Amino acid sequence: MLPGGYSSVLKAKDRDEFRDEIVRFAQRLGFDTVAAVTVVDRGLAGTDFISVDNTPQEFSSTFRDVEMMRRDPVMQHCRKQSVPIIWDQQTYTVQGMGELWEEQARFGFNTGIAMALHLPEGRHFVLGVDRDKPLPGDAAELQRVVADLQLFAVHAQEAALRLLLPEPMQPERPLLTPRELEALHWTMEGKTAWEVGAILGISERTAVLHVNNAMHKLGCASKHAAVLKALRLGLIH
Q1: pLDDT digits (tens, 9 = 90+) for 155-184
Q2: Element at 126 (helix H, strand E)
Q3: Model confidence at 17: pLDDT above 70
Q4: What's the CATH code, domain 4-168?
Q5: What's the mean per-residue pLDDT of the chain?
Q6: Per CATH, is 173-232 categorized as 3.30.9.10?
Q7: CA atoms of 226 and 237, how far apart (whole Å)
Q8: What are phi and psi of 94, to 5 degrees?
Q9: SS3 for 102?
């Protein structure tokens, strides 16, 4: 049902296990460093940044500096968009931030891929992988790497919210209708909305509505994230 390479992060029991899983996955993709940043915007109370990464110790204080995050063009992209960004030196120089790239390049941050998931209730999850050598020159290979990272991010954000956020910030177990649970179950099995409708004897539009309602109740931005959360909460099996 869920590929082991992606789903194993869901089984992480604490912050250290979570870190080990994201590092292992990044290295399988051919990247030396990885960062998973959970962001909680609390309005007037400020913004919380919770980072789990394997950044070199000598660079860690600069990497985790909030002001630096706000200036970094990669983080600025992730703050506004959900589309992954493939970055290199030019990404920084065109923004007049060449010195920042040169500083981080000394620690192996030459190029990489980053993406963000923007969730309800002011929560965000940013996942980035970096390395000191160029990315694959073959477009198909690079597309595969980006797709792998996107799928892993959906699993990783579910584990991050569970492990890293204080209990009051975690949503309560929602009450889904039987139809919403059935729609999620068949979505988990890889069925399209049309196929879900045919199985349940409802229209495709109604099937989509049930999945969307489930996503809203679960506080998820995609049907894949909703399936993962429903599994973790024991709502579907």
Answers
A1: 899 899 889 887 655 556 678 888 898 998
A2: strand 123-131
A3: yes
A4: 3.30.450.80
A5: 88
A6: no
A7: 13
A8: -70, -20
A9: helix
- In the chain, residues under CATH classification 3.30.450.80 are 4-168
Q: For the range 184-190, what are the long-range contacts, defined as Cβ-Cβ under 8 Å and sequence gap of 24 or more?
A: 184/211, 184/214, 184/223, 184/226, 184/227, 184/230, 184/235, 184/236, 185/236, 187/211, 187/223, 187/226, 187/227, 188/1, 188/227, 188/230, 188/231, 188/236, 189/1
Answer yes or no: are the C-beta atoms of 85 and 77 closer than 8 Å. Answer: yes
- Residue 123: strand pairing partners: 40, 119
What are the CA-CA distances from residue 213 to residues 25, 97, 216 (Å)? 32, 43, 5
Q: What is the pLDDT of residues 81-100, one digit of tens each?
A: 889 999 999 999 999 999 99
Structure tokens at 23: 């590092």
Q: Which amino acid, one-letter code, is at 180?
A: E
- Round to whole Å and give the CA distance between 60 and 78: 20
Task: Decide: 226 and 159 in contact? Cβ < 8 Å.
Answer: no
